[in-house]
């Protein structure tokens, strides 16, 4: 579920308030310094007048004016630092203090969303969905092998090991995961385990059901679709759960391929789970999607009993 314009505007207003708060603190400190160190204020006025004077020289064609200005400003800055130090203040006392020094509380770095803004968006997305509560219940701490036997057990153990390797190597090795197999056998559970671990280490994870992803990409204006697509393309991990449950049209297939292909080109990991067999996957989607997945994803087949139905039955018996 994407953010509404109102929610996004609310986040940006928070950034504006951060900037305003920083400016207020900076002005209060400046008034304090001007009162305690009058010479500091005099130097600030000198900086302004010197800058104006050298700007006029530049306009008059003086080629040395810029060099002279830099030398003068450097000298005046040194005097200001010396005054602060002599009065017992740190040299950076009047520098603005930011919550996020990377973007300086603007939310953007070179016209791109800062990590702090992305994290706020992702956090809000999780707050308004039930995935946050789900990840508290479904994680590696409650993983169990008791529901599997024989070949199914061996495959599940191998898949769990692959999940831990994926997490350990995340960020240093580009990999995609594809879980397929019988209904309720643990594919979504392992996807949640991975999402939980990566979120807790500060990664930006977007989690969608396949139908939710398509709904998110449908019926949007061009600007909204562009913003949503950029988040889908750039997040650290995209999880697409229950591929095959969405209503399939030519538009859906096209959007799905664009998303998977763009993430592959950007070397951004994707995790997909589905109840479809590989044959059903080929029949339901285009050859391009089937080829993209089978060529660029580590495939893990998970079979076993329907654990959800089993647990539900056991609860009803109690």
Question: What's this entry about, in short?
Answer:
With about 325 residues, this protein is α/β, with parallel strands linked by helices.
How would you characterize this protein structure?
The protein is of the alpha/beta class. Helix content is 61%, strand content 10%. The protein has 13 helices and seven strands. It has helices at residues 5-36, 38-59, 65-86, 115-127, 131-137, 150-168, 187-200, 210-217, 222-234, 250-265, 278-284, 287-296, 307-317; strands spanning 108-109, 112-113, 177-181, 205-209, 237-243, 270-274, 298-302. It has a five-stranded parallel beta sheet with strand order 4-5-6-3-7, sandwiched between helices. Strands 1-2 form a two-stranded antiparallel sheet. Helix 2 (38-59) runs antiparallel to helix 3 (65-86). The two termini are 37 Å apart. The model has no long low-confidence stretch (mean pLDDT 86).
Termini Cα gap: 37 Å
The biggest beta sheet is recorded as:
5 strands, parallel
Strand content: 5-15%
Helical stretch tally = 13
Structural class, by secondary structure, is alpha/beta
Sketch the topology as an H/E string, one letter per element. Answer: HHHEEHHHEHEHHEHEHHEH
Low-pLDDT residue intervals, each spanning 5 or more residues: none
Radius of gyration: 28 Å
Specify the helix fraction band: 55-70%
Overall number of strands: 7
Global shape: elongated
Q: Mean pLDDT score, rounded?
A: 86
| Strands ordered across the widest β-sheet | 4-5-6-3-7
